[in-house]
Amino acid sequence: MRWIRENALSLTFMTLFVLALAGQAVAGMLEFNDQQLVNGLQPVSLLAYVTSSPFAVDVSENWQSEYLQFLLFIMLTVWLVQKGSPESKQPGEEGPGSDEEQLVGPYAKPRSPAWAKSTGLRLHLFGNSLGLTMGTVFVLSWLAQSVSGLAAGNAERLTDLRDPISWGAYITSPEFWNRSLQNWQSELLAVLSMVALSIYLRQRGSPESKPVGAPHSETGTEG
Amino acid sequence: MRRMRTALAALALLLAAGCAVDTAAPARAAARFHTAVAAHQDEAACAMLTRQAARKLPDPGETCATALGDLRLGPGGRVTSVEVWGDDAVVRLAGDTVFLHRFTDGWRVRAAGCEPERDLPYDCALED
């Protein structure tokens, strides 16, 4: 019970994620089968749909943009600040910070992670592991989007009695960039809203907000 | 280490088998369709069409077989290339391009007698 309480945030998001993905699978299959009937083709089962390229491209195009959003947020906040935002460091604190501030190498505490106490490549990898992981998942899911988008797009082109295209032609096609950019713009707007609105607005009790009574000009404090 | 290499090889084989696309079946279906047309077995050829194509082909009062015979499709010839994406395929023959769709009972012809129109849809004598 204590374990559930201590991990309630992750567990809740995991549950919501699974429910939303399942809902997307069912709704996507119903829409796909509706189009199949229009084209005089057979409806597909849920299993066939969730292993198909149309489902894969819809999932991966959203995943890549989310991971890109967090990659940019994590990396840009190292070097850029926003006065008054709880998401930002104080102006003047831009950069990766000193070893003393980051508690690494000789400044590591007894309970610091083992790799934080090391030096060289291990320390560099661990010190950038969050950004590297987000970046890797972004690249892989964008690659998955390009492959599944090519497969789904070519199946659609054949339905329209058109020749299929190559992967190279697909990743320079308007469809690939439309799918990518329509997701990117919404993610970038969401981050901008979070950074800017949190200067002037509050959510009592949330660590994503400043304390209700904190001045608008106060930067980097979380309530 | 050897066990890991064996496991990786088995995984690669499984993935290759899972991702392998069967191009032979649509090629056979397209060739069979053109063989039937060339032999004037129009009813047999009509049975290889998708239900929608077989329904759209004849004018009122006409049968599918009569309408198909009237199209006078040229010979298909040998298969030069096959592309399969999902449940759809295009089979290029020496004398024609044929579009097919995979149903639970096998590949059926959606369009035949097709001429390319640059990046636009093919112009087909028969289509669903």
From TrEMBL, chain A:
<dbReference type="InterPro" id="IPR046657">
    <property type="entry name" value="DUF6766"/>
</dbReference>
<protein>
    <submittedName>
        <fullName>Uncharacterized protein</fullName>
    </submittedName>
</protein>
<dbReference type="Pfam" id="PF20554">
    <property type="entry name" value="DUF6766"/>
</dbReference>
Automatic annotation (TrEMBL), chain B:
<protein>
    <recommendedName>
        <fullName>Lipoprotein</fullName>
    </recommendedName>
</protein>
<feature type="signal peptide">
    <location>
        <begin position="1"/>
        <end position="24"/>
    </location>
</feature>
<keyword id="KW-0732">Signal</keyword>
